[in-house]
Amino acid sequence: MSRGPDGEKDNTLEMREQTKFEHGMLSLMPSLRRYARSLTRSDADGEDLLQDCVEKALSRQTQWSGSNLKAWTFTIMTNLYRNGIKRAARAPLAPFEDADSIPAENAYPGDPLERRRLAAALDGLAPDFRTVLMLVVVEGMSYRETANLLQIPEGTVMSRLARARRQLAQALQSSNVIPLRRSE
Amino acid sequence: MNDKPKTVSEYELHAYADDQLAADDMVRVEQWLDAHPEDAERVCRWQEQNIAIRDLYEPYALSRSEDEALLYAGHGKQRLNASKSRQVAAAAALFILGTLTGLSIPSFLGSAATATPIYEQASEAYSLYAPEVRHPVEVWADEKDHLVQWLSKRLGTKITAPDLSADGLSLVGGRLIPAEGSAGALLMYEDKSGERFTVLLARIPENEETAFMFDKRGPIQTLYWMDGPLAFAITGETSRETLRQLADSCYRQFQG
């Protein structure tokens, strides 16, 4: 305890701030990991994106206003991801024909192949569409929050969401399921 | 109350499905949906899909033991001593290794989200090998016993080459191909006119039972399903009806 009173005080304050920040970050890790995985479509790339995001968040810690850490970190991750895809062309995205009102066939919701088809259909969405879908549906953000986070108008959030759903429906029905079988 | 609900926009339907509407808008949309069963049906599908998407990604939302280290490591301060940082590096390396080899790190969708789906593998294998004149297979049908033994051994489960003669098909032979992240058996058949069909059998990590599903890529049609330890995919440039018959024959022969 040879430190002067001033030094000690600053130190404690910094510690407290850091603890709040770190605590917040730690509790956000599962959501961030899930979001990273959904954006990158791969376990390894997802973990890389998560690490980059954490690194960036830590280095910019002083810029955090102290409120809504989730929106702040999700923005960082979204921007990192966007910059990343600009740099490197990823696996080719299968563009689906846009079509109106195609019902999604989901004959066997618990069926493991159905899950795969849905996963493949989601992976096939353009990144902008997938991002909106993930923020709204998986992260439970409001349209307004999503718009703020992505810095796009709320109307664009809604139109991307609607188009994402049309493309999913299209993708899911391009290979059909028939209710054939099983001890009939 | 008896007022007819005013028109509801497409976006409002989405917003309703996503539970994003204020209370009075919600009432208005609900009135609309009562009067418009087709829209109600669509909204219901979106809601089901929302649940399915959440379920799909839920397993990824987890904490890992290295998260804390990751946070502290980023500070570049003395909180992380040298040995701990080596641990973190080792954990990261292990994680990457695990991801690359598919070992040790459980992939929560099986190999689902990342691996090429079996219908794509089947369709690709068909378009690659079916047109082959001299080398469509590695082992020809005249060595059928050897073929079946060899493929069973590589797949790690006993398989047979289904007899499709009742459907007018004879076995050409088979080959080993990569499928579902490990070994797959590609069996080739042909009819009297020389039209070819393939049956792809792949070992899956856990026993599954699924419906039959169709996938069409250009002229190539695949019917696929999972049953017990195997995934099946029958492929040909043919009608769904024919594939369905063939699938029936295969399915029956793999029972019991």
Verbal overview:
The complex is a heterodimer of chains A (184) and B (256). Chain A has 184 residues and is mainly α. Chain A has two domains: 5-87, Rna Polymerase Sigma Factor, Chain: A; 93-184, Winged helix-like DNA-binding domain superfamily/Winged helix DNA-binding domain (Arc Repressor Mutant, subunit A), CATH 1.10.10.10. Chain A contains seven helices and one strand, in the order H-H-H-H-H-H-H-E. Chain A has helices spanning 5-40, 43-59, 69-87, 112-123, 127-138, 143-150, 154-174, and one strand at 177-178. In chain A, helix 1 (5-40) packs antiparallel against helix 2 (43-59). The longest helix of chain A is centred in the first third of the chain and has 36 residues, at 5-40. By secondary structure, chain B is α+β, with helices and mostly antiparallel strands. Chain B folds into three domains: 10-59, no CATH class; 64-106; 118-253, MucB/RseB, C-terminal domain (Phosphorylase Kinase, domain 1), CATH 3.30.200.100. Chain B contains eight helices and seven strands. Chain B has helices spanning 10-17, 23-35, 37-57, 67-75, 82-101, 118-129, 144-155, 240-253; strands at residues 108-111, 139-140, 170-179, 182-190, 196-209, 212-217, 220-236. Chain B has a six-stranded antiparallel sheet. In chain B, strand 4 (182-190) and strand 5 (196-209) form a beta hairpin. The longest helix of chain B has 21 residues, at 37-57. Chain B is extended and about 75 Å long. Residues 76-88 and 93-114 of chain B have low confidence and may be disordered. Chains A and B meet through helix 1, helix 2, helix 4, helix 5 and helix 7 of A and helix 1, helix 3, helix 4, helix 5 and strand 6 of B.
